[in-house]
Write a structure and sequence with these properties.
Elements (H helix, E strand, L loop, with lengths): L3 H6 L120 E2 L2 E2 L3 H4 L16 E7 L1 E6 L5 E9 L4 H14 L10 E2 L4 E4 L7 E8 L8 E13 L2 H8 L11 H18 L1 E3 L2 E3 L7 E4 L2 E14 L2 E14 L4 H8 L16 H11 L3 E4 L8 E2 L2 E6 L4 E3 L5 E3 H9 L9 E4 L7 E2 L4 E3 L11 H11 L3 H13 L9 H4 L2 E3 L4 E7 L5 E2 L8 E2 L20 E2 L2 E6 L3 H4 L2 H14 L3 E2 L8 E3 L7 H14 L6 E6 L5 H13 L3 E5 H6 L2 H15 L5 E2 L3 H4 L10 E9 L10 E8 L8 E8 L9 H16 L5 E7 L6 H17 L8 E7 L6 E3 L14 E3 L9 E6 L11 E8 L5 H11 L14 H15 L36
Parallel strand pairs: 27-29, 28-30, 28-31, 31-32, 34-37, 37-38
Antiparallel strand pairs: 1-2, 3-24, 3-39, 4-14, 4-23, 5-7, 5-9, 6-7, 8-9, 10-11, 11-13, 12-13, 13-14, 15-16, 15-22, 17-20, 18-19, 20-21, 24-40, 25-26, 25-33, 34-35, 35-36, 38-42, 40-41, 41-42
Helix pairs in contact: 13-17, 14-15, 19-20
Length: 986
């Protein structure tokens, strides 16, 4: 066995790459240069609990405690040896295609189709073979791969409005040099200890560092405003790990990597659209980002690009062992006004820092009455759930005084009372006996397994002696209740959100709070950016011919309209349909007959024909049928066969939400061929007119109808580019990924394309499973080819232009996505004879942090900006073609405008044309009578990708698969011919 002294020296400095936060303990360290002493306390406060020892329930978040660590007496005696091998954990480490609509012609493999004359376009991109393992492009073609430039000085259509944006100008001195140093620390520490080492390094070696105050990114990079005395420094830093052991010595090597100033970025930002091809120096932007993060990092819990602190309102329990913390996001961005700091309000969930057993009692239902059944062991299913909840979580112990942190790798096979270990003299000793003899502590939960804290060696810790480290982001899937509480915390009206952001900028923990900015000669404005936006006019809409109102312009503030005196633009006839019930009380089931009648009547009011009687009597099944896929399939086949195999629609009424929803959709759409529409009994009890109307619109869209069309078609609104006789296709693409803790489930890509012109409100889809977390759409070429074939079969000609909207791409992936996916689209076009249409490729970003606020003299300060608000100046990219558009009305919280970034534009849209196109399309979404927040092709692609994710085989979802052995994605099941040509995913 190892000596206690040796064990204490094996600190969590070896546990690196903490992905969530540098703060994981109930202590707070102060990194001010004047402080040199580090005092620690172990992690148990003597408070009442059923276990006989103290758990630290009072662990603050960020600001809950300050200055030196408090010291408490040891709870249990600290013997010189410990039998557990408490070594520190090492670092954490072609499918089917969907065809055309029902009335499409049968596809043919002869691609010598009549092709309409395409407008003259630039010469197509030609990639050269790979050199040294990577693709290269000749200088002559290099410009064709550059991101599209802004075509003009911005749009002019619409009513001007003065707005505020949460961007804060960052002024910098172009002549100020920044020195980039690489720092290596041995042995490799965690981020938390690395920052302690860096701080002590600065305190003890100021002369050798030229009295500079450098900033540290927490990994391998240091930036300094002054060059150090030497280009290569070797230093030794001692850091106390435990009061009982000598300080640990770290070797620190610092090496100069590069030096640069702000002249290049200043030239880039000041030259506007007229410029050479020199890209923006990203190294300078990154350095300033690190500088402005230094202050908040020392005072808050960092997580990604955000910081969280109890000073912004305290931690709020949201159930299931999770707490929600308020914080703020910050990022340096290049804009037309110069460099700007984007700061926004943020809320996220963390694991609650409490004892492991109390945590499990909050998170897992079967653990809640554990104190009443201490003699019972966990079943294998329960043990799997416990292991899943704790795996990769960081914990500390409270039976001895130490600063060590341990990562949980799993649970022991045996329960605690059956665990033995070899003593120092070679004899075997029982784990429970050891704790009794050495610590005077009786293990309370003898029939629970211990935590396994090493990947390779048997290193055990009893659960009841472990506490969850603070500051660990909750990466699992939140429950509906947890999500609702998070959203409620983050749902701030514009006036309140603006006040929070202003408080961050002027507070003691925000990006402008430290002295680092002054050291690097930065001046950060504390006032939001004032700019002029425009409010676009809503389009006139066309409705069905059967209603009293056949066209309208939505002039209400929220731009919504109703169908009280109107019919949908294109209705469907549903002669054969059925109802299937899952669960529900007797009273609830008695409402099904009334529901059938009311739904049929509501459809009739909207111009949709739904037969007043179902083809078979409603089928009532218990809820557990949804949990048994084989039984569910037999029930669905039975109702399908009872309708003579000709069932247009199956309405499923459920007692509550159930995971079997995924199996129901998969079986209905891939095994049988039924279009289904699900709803809850709770909605049937109210049976409001709005609920019935929403249901009717979804059903109509799934069967082949549409809700609304533009009265003035796109060719009449954008005549320079669009013509009635030359059809255009609008495509959308998205990739959905599994939740963060899933290491193996495939990602699902979806592409949709419009197949009716000029209405452009019906879309066919293609879905593919692909490599786990792969963002590039791997089979895009085939997917686009199939959609173009569907377009051809519907309109008898290929589209003369392609406008492709891509969702879910971050700015760091722009060039990779554009190069690879644009190439795939062009390759798909080349499969048709003499076909090379101009392509516009635009990225659609909704997960950004830019917010727009009305000024007092324009709108009430607590109102959101109006639908149609567009911004394409001041806060947008200094040279590239992007804009922010808020196309919807924000009912709750603060509206988030969508950021559209055109990466490639062979169609040569003007700003006004692109903005008008996107805003007009937002009114054509089939599921509602209002403009949606995001352009419909992307919305449909997102829905299709989600539907594809429901088809994935989850039979082995409980298995843990190493990231090094991710299996190949299995193809999605093939859709039934009955529904593959419809918008079944709506």
């Amino acid at each position: 066995m190892e000596e206690e002294k040796q064990q204490e020296q094996k600190s969590n400095t070896n546990n690196n790459n903490n992905k969530t936060s540098r703060k994981c303990s109930p202590r707070t360290s102060s990194y001010r240069a004047s402080e040199t002493a580090f005092t620690y306390h172990h992690h148990h406060q003597l408070i009442q609990n059923p276990y006989g020892f103290g758990y630290g329930y009072g662990f603050g978040f960020g600001f809950g405690y300050t200055n030196q660590y408090q010291t408490f007496p040891a709870l249990l005696p600290l013997p010189p040896t410990i039998p557990l091998h408490l070594s520190v954990a090492p670092c954490f480490p072609q499918n089917h295609g969907f065809g055309s609509r029902t009335h499409f012609k049968k596809p043919t493999r002869n691609h010598n189709y009549p092709v309409p004359p395409a407008p003259e376009v630039e010469k197509r991109v030609v990639c050269h073979p790979k050199e040294n393992g990577r693709k290269v492009v000749s200088d002559a073609k290099q410009k064709q791969f550059q991101v599209a430039r802004r075509p003009d000085s911005g749009g002019i259509e619409g009513k001007p409005i003065t707005l505020l944006a949460n961007h804060f100008l960052v002024e910098f001195d172009p002549s100020q040099k920044i020195f980039h140093y690489d720092i290596e620390i041995h042995p490799n520490p965690s981020k938390e200890f690395a920052r302690m080492i860096k701080q002590k390094l600065v305190e003890q070696n100021s002369p050798r560092l030229s009295n500079a105050v450098p900033v540290f990114d927490g990994r391998r990079t240091i930036y300094s405003p002054i060059e150090f005395q030497e280009k290569n420094l070797d230093l030794y830093i001692s850091l106390p790990i435990s009061p009982l052991t000598p300080s640990k010595v770290f070797r620190v090597n610092i090496k100069l990597v590069s030096k640069f100033d702000g002249k290049a970025p200043s030239n880039y930002l000041n030259n506007g659209v007229e410029y050479d091809s020199t890209p923006l120096p990203q190294e300078y932007i990154h350095a300033l980002d690190v500088v402005l993060r230094e202050g908040p990092t020392e005072k808050c819990i960092p997580s990604g690009r955000s910081f969280y602190s109890s000073s912004m309102g305290g931690a709020k329990e949201i159930g299931g062992g999770a707490v929600a913390l308020k914080g703020f996001f910050q990022s340096v961005r290049p804009t037309q006004q110069g460099l700007a700091l984007n700061v926004d309000f943020s809320v996220t969930a963390f694991h609650e820092s409490i004892g492991v057993i109390p945590y499990l009692q909050k998170r897992l239902d079967f653990m809640r009455d554990l104190s009443c059944k201490r003699a019972l062991s966990l079943t294998s299913e329960e043990k799997d759930e416990v292991e899943k909840a704790l795996k990769n979580m960081r914990v500390f112990v409270c039976h001895r005084e130490t600063m060590q942190r341990y990562r949980v790798y799993g649970l022991t096979e045996k329960v605690t009372e059956d665990l033995w270990f070899p003593d120092r003299d070679g004899t075997s000793m029982r784990l429970t006996s050891y704790f009794k003899e050495q610590y005077g502590y009786d293990i309370q939960y003898m029939n629970l397994p211990c935590l396994q804290i090493s990947r390779r060696k048997p290193c055990y810790l009893p659960m009841e002696l472990c506490v969850i480290c603070e500051g660990q982001k909750f990466l699992g899937k939140l429950s509906d209740d947890q999500t609702a509480k998070i959203l409620k915390m983050g749902c701030q009206r514009p006036k309140e959100r603006r006040a929070i952001i202003d408080k961050v900028m002027k507070g003691s923990f925000g990006p402008a709070s430290g002295d680092q900015g002054k050291e690097f000669k930065l001046r950060i404005s504390k006032e939001m950016t004032k700019l002029t936006g425009r409010i676009l006019q809503p389009p006139k809409l066309k409705l069905g011919n059967g209603g009293n109102v056949r066209n309208l312009t939505p002039f209400r503030n929220d731009r919504q309209w109703n169908l009280l005196d109107s019919h949908v633009f294109e209705s469907t006839r549903i002669e054969r349909w059925a109802i299937m019930s899952f669960g529900g009380t007797h009273e609830q089931k008695s409402t099904v007959g009334k529901f059938t009648s009311h739904l049929s009547q509501r459809c009739q009011h909207l111009g949709i024909y739904l037969h007043k009687n179902t083809v078979v009597e409603p089928i009532y099944e218990p809820m557990h049928v949804l949990g048994n896929p084989k039984l569910l399939e037999s029930k669905l086949k039975k109702i399908y066969n009872s309708s003579s195999g000709n069932l247009q629609l199956l309405v499923c009424v459920m007692e509550r939400k159930h995971k079997g929803y995924a199996d129901l959709k998969r079986i209905a759409e891939t095994r049988i061929g039924i279009v289904s529409q699900c709803c809850l009994y709770s909605n049937l009890e109210k049976m409001s007119s709005q609920f019935l109307a929403n249901l009717a619109l979804k059903i109509n869209a799934k069967i082949g109808g549409c809700t609304v069309a533009l009265y003035n078609t796109l060719p009449s609104q954008i005549p320079r580019l669009f013509r009635q006789e030359d059809p255009v296709i609008f495509m959308g693409a998205d990739v959905t990924h599994p939740h963060p803790l899933d290491d193996s489930t495939p990602s699902v890509a979806a592409v949709v394309g419009s197949v009716n012109w000029p209405a452009s409100n019906k879309y066919v889809s293609r879905m593919r499973s692909q490599t786990h977390r792969q963002e590039i759409i791997e089979d895009l070429c085939n997917m686009v080819t199939e959609i173009l074939e569907d377009f051809l079969h519907e309109l008898s000609k290929l589209p003369t232009r392609i406008v492709f909207f891509r969702d879910g791409v971050s700015e760091t992936q722009f060039h990779k996505v554009m190069h690879e996916e644009l190439k795939a689209i062009k390759e798909a076009c080349s499969r048709f004879s003499d076909y090379a249409p101009p392509i516009t490729f635009a990225v659609v970003q909704k997960r950004h942090h830019t917010r727009l606020f009305p000024t007092e003299n324009q709108l009430p300060s607590d109102e959101n900006v109006s639908p149609g608000t567009v911004v394409d100046s001041v806060i947008v990219h200094p040279r590239e073609f992007d804009f922010y558009l808020c196309s919807h009305w924000g009912v709750k919280g603060t509206s988030r405008p969508i950021h559209y970034h055109v990466l490639w534009d062979e169609n040569k849209f003007t700003s006004d044309e692109m903005q008008k196109l996107v805003y007009n399309l937002c009114y054509t979404f089939v599921r509602c009578t209002k403009p949606v927040s995001i352009v419909p092709p992307v919305y449909y692609a997102h829905l299709a990708a989600y539907r594809g994710s429901l088809y994935l085989d989850r039979s082995d979802s409980s298995k843990t698969i190493s990231r090094d052995s991710i299996p190949k994605a299995m193809p999605l099941p093939k859709l039934s011919e009955n529904i593959r040509k419809l918008m079944f995913y709506c």
